[in-house]
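Notebook B, p. 112. Complex prediction, attempt 2.
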Amino acid sequence: MKKILINLVHPNFDESIVNKKILEGVSEFKNITINNLYLKYPDFKIDIKKEQDLLLENDVIIFQFPMYWFSSPSLLKEWFDLVLEPGFAYGKDYKLKGKDFCIAVSCGAEKKDYVSDNENMMTNLLYPFYGTSLYIQMNYKEPFITYSAEKGLSEETLNKYNQEYLEYIKKLF
Amino acid sequence: MKKILINLVHPNFDESIVNKKILEGVSEFKNITINNLYLKYPDFKIDIKKEQDLLLENDVIIFQFPMYWFSSPSLLKEWFDLVLEPGFAYGKDYKLKGKDFCIAVSCGAEKKDYVSDNENMMTNLLYPFYGTSLYIQMNYKEPFITYSAEKGLSEETLNKYNQEYLEYIKKLF
């Protein structure tokens, strides 16, 4: 059975709605680790070796975050900049090669706001993540995307997102 | 005459090759300010008010950085996350409306590496910046892009990049 790491990146997780809701029940899966990066590194001083070890111990890496300015909150970028070192993630060695790379993103806006001229803007917005996964020879999987957090979501919709996320994760094992 | 702000975002500017070279002569323009963000905020503790004031004082904002993992170094993302507040950049007020939004990015790889199937990947990679500019009603200008920093550039090429950047800036005034 595969091992899954969720790198959770939310500057204010305790007050989050969607990101907290969709994680309900996740810890009941075996072989899953939730790694709350803002909790560990509020000062941005990332323990590179510790994060690399976590990556090596797992087969599937999910980056879960709310969409901030059409990308991830900044700590995830700092994590990429520091943790994906040459000789570890690329160059002499590609130690993450073949592991799955997944994005789970919660958007404030509605789905229709991310579609223009028959083009799915979300694919473009996530392109830097896709490029990163290719560069380090990981397998980029279909992302898990939720919408409309801004307008306030009903309990029913939140429960639906939660169920869909549990299903999404189940398929990754 | 317009006023230009260059938000320079390089974690290691002193050892940079391209980013340092293309700035040669820039300070001889009048009405231009170079704002070295990593020098001011090595600890990521951004002075939001000071940065907002700088934006208000200028007509053209250039974000100059090396490409890190197909995006900007993380401090620029933190800058976006903190400085572009609701009520300042969007929402009740759009205080940056109509100002020019420019990207000046130096890529390690060669130009051909950023083209696939007749598609310019660079446009996709910069899409989060484009989206941000639209959201805050700034004018997104054609970006200034240099390539091939990784393979080592000749003095001649570096001088050419420098001249092209000076020309690029001149047109923005």
